[in-house]
Amino acid sequence: MSQPVLHIVGAAVGEGASDGGCKWGSNALKEHGLQRALAATGRTVTWGETVSAQPMLASSRLGAIEGFSEHLAQTVAQVLHHRQQPLVVGGDHSCAVGTWSAVAEHLRPQGRVGLVWIDAHLDAHTPDTSDTQAPHGMPLAALLGHGSVGMTDLFGWRGKLLPSQVAIIGARSYEPALLNQLGVRVMYMPEVLERGFAACFAEARAIASTGTAGWGISFDLDGLDPRDAPGTGTPVEQGIRLADALQALDGCSHDPQFVAMELTEYNPLRDFGGQTARAATALLCTVLAPSAATLELAA
């Protein structure tokens, strides 16, 4: 069975982050040749609309993200409506609200969406618990139904993700108690180092794909070790090594239940020499169009 057209949606948003440079991440990866690299592995790839946050039209930072989330969700919904596979390229991680709200709405007649969340941070704050009030620290909470109505209630309903169908890998921050209360499986970095990323990802994939109508991956580049991907706004030491991630993620999109991919927090203003752009390209090629040749992109 042939794979669907891979449709890239740029998410030009940095307003949710403390360092807004990731707003230019999707455009930088486009100029780096991401579409060409994906097409070279055999996929039919189109690059569609870039959705941009419009802070001047909003009364607050959170309001800008709420408006952006709605626009991104509608864009991703159209991609799915046309039976294409969305790849959302950010942009700060607040874009996850729009991406996965759309996927959840699309799959709703058949069931739920499961999600593997790879990140150095838990992103499960709400406006009531966040010291920084940075919306990129709130998307997972919102998708689980907690936070501002403009983020939780896209398409008129909340709880896009069920806690039992979400798994987080690579966290090095120990933020709010919400995920513990909900029972979300969190594999902190010490566990990843002990068990290996491959074993942790296999468990996370099983959590996200069991009892769901489809599953996907939201990959924050700060989940990687800064030695491999320094070009993010919030790098955290001792992360997942790129080579380990490439080996474990190879072939995900050949699973018929795999519905979407999201890559976030690429900050080209911090990516001197393009090392992180190469890492991001290798990751996406490995997940979405597996080929032994893609491993060379990480060299």
Automatic annotation (TrEMBL):
Entry similarity comment: Belongs to the arginase family.
One Pfam family cited in the UniProt record for this chain: Arginase
Keywords: Arginine metabolism, Hydrolase, Manganese, Metal-binding
Domain of life: Bacteria
TM annotation in the entry: none
Protein name as catalogued: Arginase
Species of the source: Rhodoferax potami
Cofactor(s) essential for the protein: Mn(2+)
SUPFAM superfamilies assigned to the protein according to its UniProt record, in alphabetical order: Arginase/deacetylase
EC number(s) recorded for this UniProt protein: 3.5.3.1
Catalytic activity: L-arginine + H2O = urea + L-ornithine
Pathway assignment: Nitrogen metabolism; urea cycle; L-ornithine and urea from L-arginine: step 1/1
